[in-house]
Write a structure and sequence with these properties.
Blueprint (H helix, E strand, L loop, with lengths): L2 H4 L1 H5 L4 E5 L4 H17 L4 E7 L14 E5 L12 H9 L4 E4 L4 H9 L4 E5 L14 E3 L8 H11 L16 H11 L6 E4 L11 H13 L6 E5 L3 H12 L7 E4 L4 H10 L2 E4 L3 H8 L4 E6 L14 E6 L11 H9 L1
Parallel strand pairs: 1-2, 1-4, 2-3, 4-5, 5-6, 7-8, 7-10, 8-9, 10-11, 11-12
Helix pairs in contact: 3-6, 3-11, 7-10, 8-12, 10-11
Length: about 350
């Protein structure tokens, strides 16, 4: 690790205004939360802002200690480089003393440099562009892969000399208004099974036949918990849930076909006994809310970065295909659940 990176906290410890910049999607934003907790502890009186992807920034509303949450549009398509001029102007107007960027993507790196901050911490990406080194005053070269993303980001802070606790913590607080709304939707119930049947891509999902067998078995178990099923508020996922319902002998206790906000979904997840789902934002929310999971995942080299770690989380791997994950069954997932 470079001495240049280690000196970041020593030099920027006096910063009064700090921006954490990460333009990843929902999973990336969730995995940023433990680092935000440590940054707030290290700079208890500084103004701490975060810039995150527009659709993911809502989850940061439940992270204590943030002063402002700035959005950046990336879905379905990000802006052209010249469309960032207004955002750069706004960043510079905020007069940040320090920017912390643990992502290292090209666009986020350019925005870091353009912010005008005196101290700029950046994690070296696997294949840095030629201009990358000019974007940061303090690079940290923490190895990529091999452990969860949230752990890697926590290690980046250590590498920059920032004091951190003994372990990464997902410190969040659901607002009382959200808890009350979820109480109504769930009749105050807790300890149920939550199922998120969809991901963003067909090839990462359970084939409909196996999905229907899994949900049917969980719903039919009268000695087990009630079943809550939910999906995102888009036409694709709503259509898949509607199709799934036609294959079930009995409907789950609650079906939320796109009518939960992101924060309501987090609150629902926090009340669940177990979450079932694939490689999606819902799985990361379960990790954030400390809810045990059973997940179906494609078998690929980088999976360890996104799989929830620990014995409370169980995963069955399959092979990616246009028809969904192959080589795994509902029976295997039920064994993982009961085991």
């Amino acid at each position: 690790m470079s001495e240049q990176g280690r000196s970041f906290y020593e030099q920027a410890g006096s910063a009064k205004r700090i921006l954490v910049l990460d333009l990843g999607f929902l999973g990336d934003t969730v995995h940023l939360i433990p680092a935000l907790h440590e940054i707030r502890r290290a700079w208890p009186t500084a103004e701490l802002d975060v810039m995150a992807e527009e659709k993911a920034k809502q989850i940061l509303e439940i992270v204590p200690g943030l002063n402002a949450i700035l959005g950046y549009p990336r879905f379905p398509k990000g802006p052209k480089w010249y469309e960032d001029f207004g955002r750069v102007k706004n960043l510079r107007a905020r007069r940040y003393d320090a920017v912390i960027n643990l992502n290292g993507s090209d666009r986020s790196s350019i925005l870091t440099r353009a912010s005008g901050a005196k101290w700029r911490l950046g994690r070296v990406p696997p294949k840095p562009a030629a201009f990358w080194k000019h974007c940061f005053t303090h690079p940290v070269d923490v190895p990529h892969g091999g452990r969860p993303v949230f752990q890697q980001r926590w290690e980046c802070l250590q590498a920059a000399g920032i004091p951190v606790g003994e372990e990464a913590i997902f410190a969040v607080k659901i607002p009382a208004a959200i808890e009350s709304a979820v109480d109504v939707k769930l009749d105050g119930e807790r300890g149920f099974i939550h199922i998120s049947p969809c991901t963003t891509q067909d090839q990462k999902e359970l084939p409909m036949k196996e999905l229907a067998k899994l949900v049917s078995a969980l719903v039919a178990d009268k000695t087990g918990p009630k079943v809550v099923l939910s999906c995102a508020p888009n036409e694709r996922e709503r259509g898949k849930v509607a199709e799934l319902i036609t294959h079930l002998p009995q409907k789950p206790w609650r079906v939320f076909a796109g009518d939960l906000s992101l924060l309501e979904l987090a609150a629902v997840m926090g009340r669940a006994q177990r979450h079932f789902g694939g490689d999606s934002g819902a799985l990361h929310l379960a990790l954030m809310m400390n809810t045990p999971t059973v997940s179906w995942f494609r078998d690929y080299s980088g999976k360890i970065e996104w799989l929830p770690p620990g014995t409370a989380h169980r995963t069955v791997l399959g092979q990616e295909s246009p028809e969904g994950l192959q080589g795994l069954t509902a029976e295997q997932l039920l064994v993982a659940y009961h085991g």
